């Protein structure tokens, strides 16, 4: 057998893919040395940091105060709405109470008018009875003979003197 005719059997461990190529290493640039901060620059940055923190605190307080006011106003609006609703309900109650009172007064007036009508009916019946009684009495007889009249009194004073002495 010749070399060209040889059959090679591949095992599972061997693969048909070519072996990986070695990676090229990137060129690493040398880092620049960190610039050191001067004490003046450091002091200035710390002052700016303190100013920024103070400003942030003030803004936070202002915002929280504004939110507190908004919340208070919302609570006032809610209270106003509830109070208006309560007043409406009280107004409705008073209207119904007024109508009930008016109804009671009308009932009383009807009862009083009925009593007056009954009383007037009774008066009318009594008058009818009285008129009937009067009609039943015999008429008074008037005498046609003249009656003697005594001497008229001239004055009251003489009457007193004569009478009382």
What's this model, at a glance?
This protein has 165 residues and is mostly helical.
Report on the structure:
With 165 residues, this protein is mainly α. The chain contains 2 helices and no strands. It is rod-shaped, with a radius of gyration of 65 Å. The termini are far apart. The model has no long low-confidence stretch (mean pLDDT 77).
- Give the CA-CA distance, first to last residue: 205 Å
Number of strands: 0
Mean pLDDT: 77
Sketch the topology as an H/E string, one letter per element.
Answer: HH
Largest sheet: none
The radius of gyration computed from the alpha-carbon positions, rounded to a whole number of angstroms, is 65 Å
Question: What is the number of helices?
Answer: 2
Shape: rod-shaped
Point out poorly predicted stretches: none
Give the topology.
Layout: H1 39-136, H2 156-164
Overview features:
165 residues
